[in-house]
Amino acid sequence: MLARSFTRRTFSSTAAFLNPPLMEHHGPVYSAIHTKLTTALEPTTLEIVNESHLHAGHAAMQGVSSTETHFRTTCSAIVPSINCSRLSSTLGCMRSR
Predict the structure, then answer these.
(1) pLDDT tens figures, 16-71
(2) 17 burial class (0-12, 13-18, 19+ CB within 10 angstroms)?
(3) Which residue, of 15, 53, 69, 86, is most buried by count of CB atoms within 10 Å of its CB?
């Protein structure tokens, strides 16, 4: 997927997580979201879109100078298979026979 603006990024490989393009600059909130999601989920794709500009005129945003207040994230990850026998029966996992 191609980037639509400088605030939209899609990652499709681990290398992209380790070596983001140098020409893009993101603030500390974006960076924290990126770091936490990539560390916790190890996603195969990750899209973080700063939508703060869409909320700039809202009453709750009056007097707020931050440009990082609202983000939309989309990610996908490959989840390793889980041994159902180890899961609690309350999860409703059923073993195929």
Answers:
(1) 444 444 446 789 999 999 999 999 888 999 999 999 999 888 888 889 889 999 99
(2) middle
(3) 69
Burial level of 53, CB count in 10 A (0-12/13-18/19+)? exposed
Tokens in use for 65?
């100078």
74 phi, psi to nearest 5 deg? -140, 130
- The pTM (predicted TM-score) of the whole model is 0.57
Class of the CATH-defined domain 8-91: alpha beta
User: Domain residue spans in the chain?
Assistant: 8-91
How many angstroms separate the CA atoms of 29 and 26, rounded? 8
